[in-house]
Every structure is written in structure tokens, then in C-alpha cells.
Amino acid sequence: MFGCECLCWESESEFYFSQPQPFSLPANLPEWPQGQGFATGRICLGELEVLKVSKFESIWSCNLMHGKTNKGLTFYKPVGIPDGFFCLGHYCQPNDQPLRGYVLVARNATSSPEEEVGYAHEPVLDLPALKKPLNYTLIWNTDTEHTGCGYFWLPNPPLGYKAMGVVVTDKPEEPKLEEVRCVRVDLTESCEMGDLILTTDSKFSKYPFQVWNTRPCKRGMLARGVSVGTFYCSTYLDTEEELEISCLKNLDSTLCAMPNLNQIDALIKHYGPTVFFHPDEVYLPSSVLWFFKNGALLYQDDNEKGESIDYRGSNLPSGGKNDGAFWIDLPNKDDARDHLKNGNLESAELYVHVKPAMGGTFTDIVMWVFCPFNGPATIKVGLMSIAMSKIGQHVGDWEHFTLRVSNFTGELWSVFFSQHSGGEWVDAFNLEFIEGNKPIVYSSKSGHASYPHPGTYLQGSSKLGIGVRNDAARSKFIVDSSTKYQIIAAEYLDDEIIKEPCWLQYMREWGPTIVYDSRAELEKLIDLLPLFVRFSVENIIFELFPTELYGEEGPTGPKEKDNWKGDEIC
Questions:
Q1: Which pLDDT belongs to residue 116?
Q2: 443-463: pLDDT as tens digits
Q3: Of 115, 238, 292, 496, whose CB is crowded by the most CB atoms within 10 A?
Q4: What does the DSSP assignment read for 190-206?
Q5: Strand 350-357 relative to strand 485-489: parallel, antiparallel, unpaired?
Q6: Strand pairing of 188-200 and 384-387?
Q7: Which domain of life is it from (predicted)?
């Protein structure tokens, strides 16, 4: 987000703006296997057909002075729109990142929806899907005393229609009605403000001004909202307001642009990341099959004796919910416990869940990593790092990362790196790649959180330098997910195509609940600190550390995680 200490706008002839250059992946895309509507360039949403436009003409730029750093923001209109398709709104992005955005353009679907897709929707009073706006409302403009002014216009839709985005001009005249189309309301979903891209205050204009990107309010594999790629802007800040623009809605129940099984395999082989574990990692991953075969036991709350688990997990309780009645634990004998804790890298594989995202215009390839044991945490206080003996450890660690692929082209768009209770989306242009278009994922020492780059990441307060260390680095301990994977679920495909493994239906805990005196262990840590530091950080340490470090409920499996059906949590 850009907050401005100084905001300058000039015509491009008077002030040079460094325009971002288009981004492309390191290697060319392959020719994907044929079938259905995946990577055909166009997607049918029911009454509407849309395609992605990523060629733009800049309309207006502003230069943002943030301290001694100059940053720019440019607003664009799509160009090269095929005949019969219509613009829905304009696009913007910062100038300090490669040009890789898009907007959707739309037209009425030419074929009969009932014949081509599973479309069961009655048009509203036979109104056309797209209509010109009635006129425009000026949202904001730069002060007229400046040259190269920017004007931001909201299309006013006809009754029963919604605007999809904002139009930007460099002249005070109202845009032509032909510039954009509005969409019939039953073909839309509500959207919300995403990241704040720009904010100014009133000393640069008569009114403050904010710009956000947008996203569907409801997201996840069952949601049908489709992001148009446009932005929203306003002269007042109210994150609770209902936006005056919407996103599209996919009414094609077949999700025809989702990849088939052959295409999924091709995507994984082309994009499957290499996972690097830390060179000092003790608790490596394994396959679930190896974990069961080598002594994992199933316990029930009324039975002190554990039961051996069939290597397929066929004797695990199936379905239901996590009621605490069952859990998995390591063998009782120390040698057997240690053997299982250390994992088995040779057997390790990635467990893949494939699901629709953004109304079926993207595919999320979720890759789950299983580690039999999560090691204890290392606490960092300033320059000191102290390894804990128990805090943070638990049996059965499920971690994941997610590849988001465009269904228009099959291009890798971004990767989500899961990090304990949250995570982050990273655009493709900020990833490290190995062997063509395969990203690198760094798994942190002991805790197995995922990161896009090597380094030390602090879970706590970076400002104070206090928290749990997450160390990530390259090593000889790797798992290549492009070759070592098993597809365990893709609910949008026919049930007969992918058989879900028995263990995936186990909804209880993959480790016992552990309760320990974490305060006593933290107090030992505090006693190791110099006297002049000890008293100033004591309260901070207890307040900052994540609550999961004070005692561990056994972790649940992939299907019990919120992101199995929902979107990733950042």
C-alpha cells in the first residue's frame, strides 16, 4: 500500500514515469493435453462468455514520494479487445512490480447455454446480459491547476444492472457510453475491497482518495464469484460499505474450464515445486503409508492400549467430526518412537487436493506435506536464540502450500505459503524457480512452515526482535513434488475418477493432546537473559508467543482444515 508524503502528477511529456514491463515465467508453457474448456483462452459463465485481457494502454500515472523513495501508480485501459467483447472497467497497479494484471472482457454467449453447459437459470424478463451505462458520476479528480490530470468515473447502470469497475480519463469530459458495459444483476456477485493500493489526504486535493483492488466476498471451492480484475476507489474510507461495483458470477454448474485428470497431471509435472528442508532438520517428512506401517497406533478415549493401524488406514474411524474420542500416537518404545519421529524422506510424497477458485476461473492445486513429528520451537530474543525442549512439539504435522493456476491459459499465477495459523500469497514474479517453471518452497526447521525464500522468519514481534524462529535454507533434503505426488481429491470430477484414500476420511486428531508447563520453560529462558534485558522483556515474551505453543491439541487432517473448502487465510 502506498501512503503519500508527497503526490505528484504530470503529463508523461513533462515527467518521466518508469512504466512496468510485462512479466513472463522463466520457461514457455507446454501444450496442455486436450479436453473440456481448460486453457482455451475463454470461459463460459452461463449467459456470458469472458476472456482475459492483459494488454493495456496507460491513461494516467501519479508519482508517490514516500520518504526518499519514488514510487509510481499507473491506471490502464485494456486494448486489443476482440470484436463482440466489451470492456467492464479499467485496471491499475504500482509501477515497482512487473505488469502482470488482467481484466475480463465479456460478451453474450453465442451458443445455447442449456446445450453447452449445465446452466439452469431463468433470464430476468429477457433482459440482455450486458447494457451500456446511463451516464457516469465523477468520483474524484486531481486539482485542475496541475497538468496531466486524472479523472475517475463510476458508470451509472440501468435499473437491474451493476457496474463492474471504474473508468479513468485524463480529460474532464465524461467518458463515452460505449467505453464499458454493465452486467445484469442476476449474473453478478457482491465484491469487497482487497488490498489498499493508494491513499492520499486532503492536502493534495479537495478530498482524500483511496484505491483498492477487489475480490468476491464469498471465496472457496463452492463459491461462484469471479474477479473481474478491476479496482475500486472512493473519497472516504469505510471498509464496511457496500461497494458500488460487483464481480461476475459463474452460473455454469459443470465448471467447464476446470482441468481434467490428464491436465492436472500435466500441471503438476510442469509446476510441481521442489521442497527444501533445512540442513539441520531432524524431523523429516514421510508418506502416510510409511507412518502406519512403522508403528503408529490408534487410541480411543476409553482404552489405554493402542491399536495398530492398517497401512491403508482402513481401520480408522471414518467421517463424523473431531469429537476427541480417537487420536493417533507414536509407539511406546523409545527406539520405535524416535524412528517414527525422524520420518522417512525416501517415502515422502505430496498429497494433492485440486479445487476450483474464483468461480472456476482459477484452479487451486493444494499440496499437503505430512511429517510424523513437529519439533520443539527455538525462541529468539534480540541476538539470542534458545532451543526449547518441549514448547511447540507435537505428533502428526500436516502443512501445505497452494499453486493457483489460471484456467484461461494454464499459467501459474501465484503460490500460497502456509505458515502455522496463517500464511501469504506470493505472485509468480516474486518466486524462486528451479528447472523451468517449478517454484522453490522452503520448509522451516522443526515447524515445517512454508516460505518463498531462505532466511530467518520471526513468529512474534519483528519490531522487538522477540518470537519463535522459523529458519529456512537449501539442503540435500528435498522432495520433488512434480514426481512424488498422489492426487487424493478433486470433488468437481466424477467420483469414479479419483478414489479418496481411507485415511483422508479420518476426521479426528493425528496426535495426542499435550499439556505441559510452558511457563516454567519460558521462565528458564528468561533466566538465561542478561539482567538489563530480563525485566524489560519478561511480560512481552508471555504476551507475544502464539497460544498454540503453551499446549498442543493433536492436529487434525487435511479435510478438517478450513482451507479444504474455503479460501486460504492470510
A1: 41
A2: 999 999 999 999 999 887 777
A3: 292
A4: EEEEEEEEEEE-GGGSS
A5: parallel
A6: unpaired
A7: Eukaryota
Q: How confident is the model at residue 341 (pLDDT cuts 50, 70, 90)?
A: very high
The closest of 508, 525, 499, 245 to 382, measured between CA atoms, is 525
State the Cα–Cα distance between residues 243 and 214, nearest whole angstrom. 10
What is the torsion angle, in degrees rounded to the nearest 10, for the CA atoms of residue 128, residue 129, residue 133 and residue 137? 150
- Distance from C-alpha of 166 to C-alpha of 154, rounded to nearest angstrom: 5
Each residue's pLDDT tens digit, 499-517: 999 999 999 999 998 776 6
Whether the Cβ atoms of residue 487 and residue 498 lie closer than 8 Å to each other: yes
Question: Which amino acid, residue 159?
Answer: L
Count CA atoms within 13 Å of residue 149 on its CB side.
14
**Percentage of residues in the chain having pLDDT higher than 70:** 83
Instruction: Write out 49-96 in H/E/C secondary structure.
Output: EEEEECCEEEEEEEEEEECCEEEEEEEEEECCCCCCCEECCCEEEECC
The model carries a pTM of: 0.91
Q: Which amino acid, 525? A: L
d(CA 334, CA 117): 58
Cα separation, 31 vs 28, in Å, equals: 9
What is the helix, strand, coil percentage profile of the chain, to 5?
15, 40, 45
Q: What is the per-residue pLDDT for 112?
A: 43
Residue 196 has phi, psi (to 5 degrees) of -80, 120
Average pLDDT for 48-58: 96
Closest CA to 98 of 24, 48, 23, 32: 23
- pLDDT bin (cut points 50, 70, 90) of residue 67 is very low
- CA 101 – CA 1 distance, rounded (Å): 16
**Backbone angles phi and psi of 494, in degrees to 5:** -60, 140
